[in-house]
Amino acid sequence: MNLTPFWYTALAVLSLSVIIALYRVIKGPSLQDRILALDSISYTIVGMVGVLSIIMDTQVYLDIILLIGILAFLSTTSLCRFIERGVVIERGGD
Predict the structure, then answer these.
(1) CB–CB of 25/37 below 8 Å?
(2) Are the C-beta atoms of residues 63 and 53 closer than 8 Å to each other?
(3) Which ranges of the chain would DSSP assign to H, the alpha helix?
(4) Cβ atoms within 10 A of the Cβ of 75, count?
(5) Where are the domains of the chain?
(6) Digits of tens for pLDDT over the chain (94 positions)?
(7) pLDDT at 92 (0 to 100)
(8) Angle at which helices 31-56 and 4-27 pack, to 10 degrees?
(9) Which residues contact 9 (CB under 8 A, 6 or more apart)?
(10) Closest listed residue to residue 38, CA positions, set 74, 85, 81, 89
(11) Which of 11, 45, 80, 81 measures 20 to 30 Å from 73, CA to CA?
(12) Which pLDDT belongs to residue 44?
């Protein structure tokens, strides 16, 4: 059974999801909405790379998926910390 059309459809749906999230990044009413949209884009790109890995029948992209996931987590954590405290890294030299 050839599932290639299914994977291309999944890739198209994920691409549409990125476009919708980009709209929320640009038009978002608040900073929190924009951060959540960027987080959504990051993990949607992880899904897209996973689908590409399945389509191309290779495991080379799995390291890239891990790297994107780690960067997405760190960027979301840093942006939330910046919103909450005003700084990302606190300097406690006093």
Answers:
(1) yes
(2) no
(3) 4-27, 31-56, 62-85
(4) 14
(5) 4-85
(6) 678 899 999 999 999 999 999 999 999 899 889 999 999 999 999 999 999 999 999 999 999 999 999 999 999 999 888 888 888 777 876 5
(7) 76
(8) 160
(9) none
(10) 74
(11) 11
(12) 97
Tokens (6 digits) for 36: 């959540």
Tokens of 64: 């890239």
| Site of tokens 């951060």 | 35
Say which amino acid occupies 50: G
CB 36, CB 10: distance < 8 Å: no
| pTM as predicted | 0.84
